[in-house]
Write a structure and sequence with these properties.
- By secondary structure, the protein is α/β, with parallel strands linked by helices.
- It has one domain: LmbE-like (Rossmann fold, 3-Layer(aba) Sandwich), CATH 3.40.50.10320.
- The chain contains 10 helices and 7 strands.
- The strands form 2 sheets. A 4-stranded mixed β-sheet has the order 4-5-7-6. A 3-stranded parallel β-sheet has the order 1-2-3, sandwiched between helices.
- Keywords: Zinc.
């Protein structure tokens, strides 16, 4: 089971792993906490962003081979431009949800599915989005309640990412909402990552899953991050996005595993 905060998070962080596991015959379940209704997008009159994003989520999930998609129904907490929890947010914002209550909702799905693995985010929520931080708290507790044996924290190897951003900055002007300096403390350094999953074989599905979230490739006064990613040429895309990283806290930091279910010598 892959637990994410908003539609499109699955495409950015875990899509290749999801497609890989589905192709291997595993039952893959995708759960999102919110519909992402506070994301930036250009909508047609009468359209609701949350409904649109959930439709995009189902399309993405189908492309990746998911057998089931669920939304816990919490409100998108939003994010300040400079980072941190938004001042104005819905009454049912995920960040304000009772952790135990939300964890029991997720645990019920874990138990129903008899899930052997759950992916969440690291304690800092990757780049710090409040809803991502809450995914970590709720997901960790849900795994305890359900007795889920393997919990992986989806992340990005910060070391090559910083190098790529430095090189890209010489040739490309990043959009205003994208500050490369935020990644100096985001995600995880290579030394703590335990799983490096090669998903190059599933790059087409991953790219198609990204493209399914069309609402998040538009809006604002400049190129969106997702739109920039989709412009990357195929061979470079497979190289840059061909590995997905995870941290498993009950194995030694830096253990080099290549499959989510791979055992490690104790």
């Amino acid at each position: 089971m892959f637990f994410h905060a908003h539609p499109d998070d699955e495409a950015l962080l875990t899509a290749g792993t999801m497609a890989k596991l589905a192709a291997e015959g595993h039952r893959v379940v995708l759960v999102v906490a919110t519909a992402g209704e506070r994301g930036l997008a250009e909508m047609e009159p009468g359209e609701q962003l949350g409904e649109t994003r959930l439709k995009e989520l189902y399309t993405s999930a189908a492309l990746l081979g998911c057998a089931r998609v669920e939304c816990l129904g919490y409100g998108d907490s939003g994010l300040r431009p400079e980072g941190g929890v938004a001042d104005e947010r819905p009454d049912n914002a995920f960040i304000d949800a009772d952790t135990e209550e939300a964890a029991k909702k997720l645990a019920a799905i874990l138990q129903e599915e008899k899930a052997g693995l759950l992916t969440i985010y690291d304690p800092a929520g990757g780049y710090g989005h409040p809803d991502h931080v809450q995914v970590h708290r709720v997901g960790r507790r849900a795994a305890q309640i359900a007795g889920t044996p393997v919990v992986l924290e989806a992340t990005v190897n910060r070391d090559p990412l910083l190098w790529l951003l430095k090189v890209a900055g010489r040739f490309y002007r990043f959009p205003p909402e994208f500050d490369p300096r935020t990644f100096e403390s985001a995600y995880a350094p290579g030394e703590v990552i335990t799983h490096r999953v090669n998903v190059r074989r599933y790059a087409r599905q991953k790219r198609a899953a990204m493209a399914a979230h069309a609402s998040q490739a538009s809006g604002g006064d400049s190129d969106r991050t997702l739109a920039v990613m989709l412009k990357v040429p195929g061979p470079i895309y497979r190289f840059v996005f061909g590995t997905e990283w995870y941290v498993r806290r009950d194995v030694p930091p830096g253990t080099r595993l290549t499959h989510p279910f791979q055992r490690w010598p104790k």
